[in-house]
Amino acid sequence: MPADAFLDDALRQFRKSRALAEAALAQVDEAQFFTALGPDENSLALLVKHVAGNQASRWTDFLTTDGEKPGRRRDAEFEREPGDTRAALMARWERGWGLLFAALLPLQEADLARVVTIRGEPHTVLQAITRQQNHYAWHAGQIVFLARHLRGARWTSLSIPRGESARFEVGKDGRPYATGG
Length: 181
Known about the structure:
By secondary structure, the chain is mainly alpha-helical. The protein is 50% helix and 8% strand. It is built from 5 helices and 4 strands.
């Protein structure tokens, strides 16, 4: 049972990170999507590209091949290249999440103790999942922070807005809902 609970929660947490990032991305326009705050900083586009590249590498043949695929061009994930349109990058993002869920959904309790490698380093499946949860949550936070900065006063809060905590309660699902008060 605890293994099933872990897998269910892992899927839930991945979905939350994805939804949070996508809600932030939905608030920015085309120019903001490609805006970097400085010459050595990532735009939203590059964060999307990197997460998608990481997912394609990690989750393709997850149980049978190293999570760092030989054909991955990680450094290129942090450079805008011809063809890197918002639509193309979001299609890669969608594909990456699809690979993640396709790899995780069939896992069973016994799979959690199996060993997989990432860059030649052994991890149990449980460790590999946790590693990726942290990685994607980190980047989802970056996406939200950057999108919020770029939107400025036009930002719509993705959680309880500042100064409005008293109007919200938390439901059994852990999500806030308005109480009307």
